[in-house]
# Entry
Amino acid sequence: MVEAIVPVPSAPSVPDRRLRTGYAMAVCASVLFAVNGSVSKVMLLGGMPAQRLTELRSAGAFVGLLVLLALTRPRSLKVTARELPMLALFGVAGFALVQWLYFVAIVRLPVAIALLLEYTAPLLVALWVRFVGREPVRRRLWVGLALALLGLALVAEVWGGVQLDGLGVLAALGAAVSLAVYFVVGEHSVSSRDPLSLTCYAFGFSTLLWTLVQPWWTFPWSLLGTDVSMLGNLADVHLPMWTLAIWLVALGTIVPFSLIIGSLRHLRATQAGIVGMTEPVVATLVAFVWLAEALGPAQLLGGAVVLFGVVLAETARPAPVDLSDG
# Structure
């Protein structure tokens, strides 16, 4: 799932070595997020409900990040009463709903198509900035929007009648709206709080929401002990679901989030966001090799057009003036 970065203020120009480090961290994060899409789909089709998978991921990531920060930067965990409403909104809209809707989508759609639909979020952010925030945007926004709509039409192969699952499409588009809220709220919140503690508290509020909706004493713990097929080309391989849960929390959440946040010390947010466009590409390859999910030529072309349109939208907002550039 996108899995997405926490927006941060643009950084000044950096040396090539730091750029390479930042790009390497961002690419590694995207690869881990992409693989996590297939891991999550195996768990979902293995019987784990989407709500419970979201709850498990949120709680595991919250505990892991809380321990990490408590040991390394305990002062960053201080929080004021004024911050709580924004942190709650960020956690519920940007983490709980994004993850849950994405999980619903990948059960009903190929992982790549679910991600493409979700990754239209930057377009929504740019439109919000233009019409609600009344900030200036470059004309490329409208080109990007047109390309994204054309690409989505190719992905859906609308000339042959819509073949995609309707509920899956609605869930993926709902995830895009929630992800857009995540970007907008995150961009505001990060001005007063470091990204790692912000992410930790967001996962905490996501965990709190799901705990209230479905208490932990009703969690289907027995499912974690069942052996599940890896599906697709690995259908003959069976693993206990708890091993996949470890990947989901550690390598599918804590490590990639830490990498993407770390990369923002070396890259501008826009640069990291564009690198994040590699996630749907890698997810398509992983789903093809592992789950045998194949897209047709028109859908592959449409995916490329969508990503190009999103890149244009990502760069539609004028960059802040960088005095270090002269």
Summary: Confidence is low (pLDDT under 50) at residues 8-12, 321-326.
